[in-house]
Amino acid sequence: MYDLSANDVPDGQPDEQTLNLGVLEGFLGFRLRRLHNRMVQSFGQVLSEFELRPGEFASLALIAANPGVAQVDVARIANFDKASVVALVDDLERRGWAERRRSAEDRRRHSLYATRAGEAALDQLMALARKHETWITDALEPDERAQLISMIDRLYVRLVEEEPR
Amino acid sequence: MYDLSANDVPDGQPDEQTLNLGVLEGFLGFRLRRLHNRMVQSFGQVLSEFELRPGEFASLALIAANPGVAQVDVARIANFDKASVVALVDDLERRGWAERRRSAEDRRRHSLYATRAGEAALDQLMALARKHETWITDALEPDERAQLISMIDRLYVRLVEEEPR
DNA sequence: TATTGTTATACTCTATAACTATA
DNA sequence: TATAGTTATAGAGTATAACAATA
């Protein structure tokens, strides 16, 4: 097993399997990038048959859960730029999984809806995604998964609400 | 404050501030991407005076903590591709913060060393980074930070060691 | 044959700015 | 004036493949 934490490798003789993390030890950003990167790769492999990007998956899920939602709100919740959502929804429409309808109340807005095909696709995708997530989070104790999500959300809210210091 | 969790928005009337996360509720990948993205942005703002990429920071820290380390080991620990490390070390050399020396034992390898200037820069960078991290993780309870890192590491090890399912 | 470092290439994700139509 | 969506563009991050030198 990889040793991913600090250790006592003497200077000048770094082991091949283990490395001293030095000042990165206890550094959240480093661990987060590393994990996120692996998860994107792994998730991509699991969904490779669909050739679906994480952003499309997330957008489809948000649209299905919030019929009539505007693009700008999808962007805000998923932390996308509104320009990125344009391309994501383009893709979803091309697949026939979602559609834009001009909002009657506010004609600047596109109300987004998942199609029947989109709902069906989401079911399939979720079955795969849930299996994948379960496999990963089996590395945690039963109650840690909810704890982890709670912590991630609190960190995210902190970053959204205030300026970096 | 943003409501980032599920709620009872009725179909067809999604609120502007809150959105139903639907199947994404409890979905780790989604939360992780959102947080990671914000942290990269925020960290970039904090270190903007250095015009330093997260990868350079991590590489410098690993090299400083492991004098003589090979590029391939930096890549493995930080989860970079070995080709990416070439560019990162190029940058560090250009700044005068690190240097390559051909290894005597294995002439395929470049042994990496932080320079005095590199050590000094790392001190400055770490002061800023630590301040930033402290500000963010103040959103957590005192013992949660260590818990979080422990969980992230266990998830990462799971992903590194086994094939996705 | 396998590994280390390198180069070249391409693709995804994201950021930004400018534009339009609507409010 | 401000907002929603769009377009165009550029940059960062990463993955892949091929190659030379070395093991």
Q: Number of helical runs of chain A? A: 6
What is Rg of chain A?
A: 20 Å
Net shape of chain A: globular
Largest interface: A-B, 82 and 82 residues
Structure, explained:
Two copies of one chain form a homodimer. Chain A is mostly helical and 165 residues long. Helix content of chain A is 56%, strand content 7%. Chain A is built from six helices and three strands, in the order ααβααββαα. In chain A, strands 1-3-2 form a three-stranded antiparallel sheet. In chain A, β2 and β3 form a beta hairpin. The radius of gyration of chain A is 20 Å and the shape is globular. The first copy, chain A, starts with 27 loop residues before the first helix and ends with a helix. At the A-B interface, α1, α2, β1, α3 and α5 of A face α1, α2, β1, α3 and α5 of B. Chain B binds a DNA duplex (23 and 23 nucleotides) through α1 and α4.
Task: Describe the structure using short key phrases.
homodimer; 165 residues; mainly alpha; DNA-binding; three-stranded antiparallel β-sheet; 7% strand; disordered N terminus; 56% helix
Please sum up the structure shown.
Chain A has helices at about 30-45, 55-65, 70-80, 80-95, 115-135, 145-160, and strands at about 70, 100, 110-115.
Outline the fold blueprint.
Two copies of one chain form a homodimer.
Chain A: H1 28-46, H2 54-65, E1 69-70, H3 71-78, H4 82-94, E2 98-102, E3 110-114, H5 116-137, H6 144-161
Antiparallel strand pairs in A: 1-3, 2-3
Helix pairs in contact in A: 2-4, 2-5, 3-4
Chain B binds a DNA duplex (23 and 23 nucleotides) through residues 37, 40-41, 53-55, 70-72, 80-86, 100, 106-110.
